[in-house]
Design goal:
Length: 149
């Protein structure tokens, strides 16, 4: 076992190169955090939208739907923040959630009004665009030889 009791300089440490490379990957890929916050906020907005736009009573199925999809988007955002290297593969799923949010008022709901349609269209569009941004960041990071962490 190696003697790790010294408190001196780490230049002679056997893993110094690997630690430097990992530090560069971690610090170089943090541009993804600019996307994680808005994704989380869109998820929260989607989750509470039935009560803000007041369609929780006349569209109970759609209210439950938006709550579940909003929580899913917020959980994706937390995953992008905590474990981006593993989670950015799900950026396409976020794009799919965005498209689903746009068409859900007609599939899940029954005769949606303009407020419901506009709310889901805006939140779905934002989710789709943020999913594309996540995908672009993940592709840029993987092309550059570093992971998005």
């Amino acid at each position: 076992m190696a003697d790790v009791s010294h408190r001196g300089d780490l230049r002679d440490h056997p893993d110094a190169t690997e630690m430097r490379d990992r530090y560069a990957r971690v610090m170089g890929g943090r541009d993804v955090t600019l996307i994680d916050g808005p994704v989380f906020l869109v998820g929260l907005a989607c989750a509470v939208s039935p009560w803000i736009v007041h369609f929780s009573t006349n569209q109970p199925a759609l209210a439950t739907h938006n709550l579940i999809v909003g929580i899913a988007i917020a959980v994706l955002a937390l995953g992008f923040t905590v474990a981006p290297q593993r989670m950015y593969g799900l950026s396409g799923a976020m794009c799919a959630l965005g498209v689903w949010l746009v068409i859900a008022p007609w599939i899940v709901g029954s005769s949606p009004d303009a407020g419901v349609i506009w709310t889901n269209a805006v939140l779905g569009g934002l989710t789709f665009l943020l999913g594309l941004a996540c995908t672009a960041v993940a592709m840029k990071s993987s092309r550059g030889g570093r992971s998005p962490i």
